[in-house]
Automatic annotation (TrEMBL):
UniProt GO MF annotations: isomerase activity
Keywords associated with the record: Isomerase
Pfam families registered for this protein in UniProt: SnoaL_2
Record has Lyase as a keyword: no
Domain SnoaL-like residues, every copy: 1-87
UniProt protein name: Ketosteroid isomerase
Tree of life domain: Bacteria
Organism of derivation: Pedobacter cryoconitis
InterPro entries per record: NTF2-like_dom_sf (IPR032710), SnoaL-like (IPR037401)
Signal found in the keyword field: no
Length: 134
């Protein structure tokens, strides 16, 4: 996965915002290594010159709560010289938080408060992961 990204790549989704290439490579490494039971399926992969899309589904246990998650994602890509330079994932944060967090996600998953809290925690976890592995 890491080799797919150009050195100037960016990544964003509902949780991880505006990552640069080094951060996105570390993010995938962190998620894959911490996702002991992670299983990913993908389909509807389409490319057309410099752009592409795919749909993927991640099945895993959210480590912070021990709850099972099935996250359905629509990805869009921009390619340059055969590498990803822009990757954006879209998924339903409310559905994700309801599964990953249980009752707090059900009650607050629609709020910017919870989305921002989860995003800040993820950014801090990524920062700590990078510091420990570089």
């Amino acid at each position: 996965m890491q080799a797919c990204y150009a050195d100037n790549a960016t990544f964003s989704d509902a949780i991880f915002k505006d990552l640069d290439a080094a951060q996105v490579r570390s993010m995938w490494e962190m998620l894959i290594k911490s996702g002991k039971d992670m299983r990913v399926e993908y389909n509807h992969v389409q490319t057309g010159g410099e752009t592409g899309t795919a749909e993927w589904v991640a099945h895993y246990t959210f480590s912070a709560t021990g709850k099972k998650v099935v996250n359905r994602v629509k990805a869009s890509f921009v390619f340059e010289n055969g590498k990803i330079v822009q990757h954006t994932d879209h998924f339903n944060f409310y559905k994700w938080s309801s599964q990953a967090l249980g009752l707090p996600g059900i009650l607050l998953g629609w709020t910017d408060f919870l989305r921002n809290k989860i995003s800040k925690r993820a950014a801090e976890n990524l920062r700590l992961y990078i510091a420990a592995h570089n």
